[in-house]
Fold these 2 entries.
Entry 1:
Amino acid sequence: MVTIQNRRERERAERHQLIIDAARELAEAEGWEAVTTRRLAEKVEYSQPVLYSHFKGKDAIVRAVAIQGCGELARLMRKARPEQGESRLKAAAEAYLEFAAKRPALYDAMFVQQVDIPFGTDEVPQELRDAFGELVAAVGPVAGERDLETLTEVFWSSLHGIATLTHGHRLRPDHHEARLDLMLSALQGP
Amino acid sequence: MVTIQNRRERERAERHQLIIDAARELAEAEGWEAVTTRRLAEKVEYSQPVLYSHFKGKDAIVRAVAIQGCGELARLMRKARPEQGESRLKAAAEAYLEFAAKRPALYDAMFVQQVDIPFGTDEVPQELRDAFGELVAAVGPVAGERDLETLTEVFWSSLHGIATLTHGHRLRPDHHEARLDLMLSALQGP
DNA sequence: ACTCGAATCTAGCACCGCTAGACATCCGAG
DNA sequence: CTCGGATGTCTAGCGGTGCTAGATTCGAGT
């Protein structure tokens, strides 16, 4: 009898996703400090131990949210097309920064909290690879003779710095556009 | 009688600094998650409530550590002088990134954790002003016709992005120098 | 219908930031 | 020299956290 086993597995997968979505919603609504295992359990209408039958711990839940967030960022950047007279680089930068500004909790889980998503030689989640790939594609046209991957890392660093310092109110809120233009024209090269 | 009052105030100020130093040492040795009020109280050999007679809460202690960290960063950057054939911009960038790499916990308190140090119109701590001033001074020679303060914010953002992404193992550890050179030559302008 | 295993929950551990109220200690007036 | 009072410090505890052992409930197969 496979059907019963199948139904169980399907229900389990649905609940798995339910937990991830609940954590994400809670974080986006009230910040990560409001995401406790008790509140999360209440939100999904199960008791706390159920969370631990799906994830090794709270960190694993945050990590799952972060990885799905990477997928969304990749999707948003792929969809972003330059408007009239706009470089692809600028369109990508704007999409990235808009994502960081509109989903600060999600962005935090992805790149600020050190959730130890495998980044190095290990198996990197596909969602992350996709997001970085979009950045590479945007940088490509302006790389010239410069090393593409290295230049993309610089571009990403600049975006990440602007995103996090802006979120921490460390930069003048007006001047946002001027900063972006200055950064882009610098990277555009000679 | 002022002498007794004076002695008390002096002892109090010493203990104030003792707490800050202990918090900083604990954070640098084991990370901020290891800095609990209990461990901190044990380290300074007082009970927990004593901490609360000096600081409003744990956040205030972290904030104090962060502000002193800003002073140290400013001092390090002021001391950094370009070597033979090196631009002042590069010397400043290297000093900044070396600080971030060698004192990751301190850097975290200063710029990553949102400790709500007044940044905007409020009274900004002098240490912070000094640190930003050093960045401005380093950017000055290469600004050209570009707005100095805005360009400095871009420079800072790039440095901050590189520092945090490197610390989170998001960038290839080798290639560090190549990234820095690429970033600097981009900012150097045409 | 009953048994037995899997799924789920209750209750609790050790820790967290923080604080009220008991206690000690020391200063200055009588 | 004593003693009242202020000042400083500590003990003990509150409500919260992440996490888990053991009890309990539930449902599928014989």
Entry 2:
Amino acid sequence: MKLSQTEENYLKAIYNLAYANANNVSTTMISEAIKTKASSVTDMIKKLADKDLVHYKKYQGVSLTKIGQKIAVEIVRKHRLWEVFLLNKLNYNWDEVHELAEQLEHIKSDTLTDKLEAFLEFPTHDPHGDPIPDKEGNIEHHKDTMLSSVETEKSCVVIGIKDSSDPFLKFLDKLQIQLGSTLKVISKEPFDNSMLVKTESASISISNQISKNIFVKKL
Amino acid sequence: MKLSQTEENYLKAIYNLAYANANNVSTTMISEAIKTKASSVTDMIKKLADKDLVHYKKYQGVSLTKIGQKIAVEIVRKHRLWEVFLLNKLNYNWDEVHELAEQLEHIKSDTLTDKLEAFLEFPTHDPHGDPIPDKEGNIEHHKDTMLSSVETEKSCVVIGIKDSSDPFLKFLDKLQIQLGSTLKVISKEPFDNSMLVKTESASISISNQISKNIFVKKL
DNA sequence: TAAAATATTTAGACAAGCCTAAAAATATAA
DNA sequence: TTATATTTTTAGGCTTGTCTAAATATTTTA
């Protein structure tokens, strides 16, 4: 099945929204995610339904079919692999890779994704810590241990972030906290739940608002 | 100036045709290069002329303006850098990279091309031996020493090919002749101008038809 | 549960790029 | 140099994906 870039973007948006919401995805939610008008979304949804990529009943929202989901996961896979490439090989920063990956994910090829994956030595997570689906579309849903829940004196490795907004990414860059950074919790402040954390290069104080948004693997 | 992928393809086609022909490029030539009807080309040419990307007078063919040429060279630069990436990093073959590069060349970013170039360690030629324009758009027009003109007992390095058709590329792959291969001319057969050539791995007989299509740098 | 607010869909229009068929210009040949 | 052939352009139409405005459902609230 040959899909346009636009169609692929719709599937991806529905996939992400469904993942975040569990139930059917509304026209309005899609229109916000994709920055178009709701009426345009309705049009496109009908076309996707004709192609059996989404389930759709008027006024009831949409969900992906098996095929639709498969395609969406493929796009997510490509997106995350390209992000790893941009970060690890081309020296982009955490906060710069997303926009470029949005374009690269639509490159069509039977072999490119797998070759890219091999070149990157089969990464399991993208720079935001989201898991990369394998060739068959299996995706490990990552466990949500947050930095905020790490005990005093314990160490952990940063495997991702929950909020991937630009300001947050820039803030982490300033703190020199990256994917793979090892952090040790020195002390916790019961008053405001902030914590003192030792990174590779410094000791820093991190507010609860921040530590709640950093996924870690405990060591 | 933000151009569509289609517009970029027109500029690139005109650039390549102009390079091969010197004079103005005809509607029909473009339509063949780009696989559309001549009438569609006329439409698009008018739009490109409105944007000052081409010079156009009815029935007189087109040529690129300074701006049009600058953009075309940028696309060529991106195309060739991606080809190097696909060949050197992802282990694609000589004959597979073109089609993919056709897609990758349209990725939009202010920084990607330069970062890619640095990652590839500033290659000067693409896998077909065509020169890669630098950041400023300067492009070295490559000298045309063909394998056929190399003297007996002399060695040379393959820097490109003249004919980049699929069958020819496949044929060279079979002979294990690649960009950068060192070849030594053992003997030449005056009767049919074929030559006996030593590659890294074997001695092979090469017809004049082949040796006339391989660019080399004499050693 | 009826009225008001919100969400969704329909209808009609538009731009980009392509097409076919026909008209106009240019090039070729007798 | 006039007739014929070829190339190029024009005219009108189609598809994709978008939009606005209006109509219709659904949800919320009183």
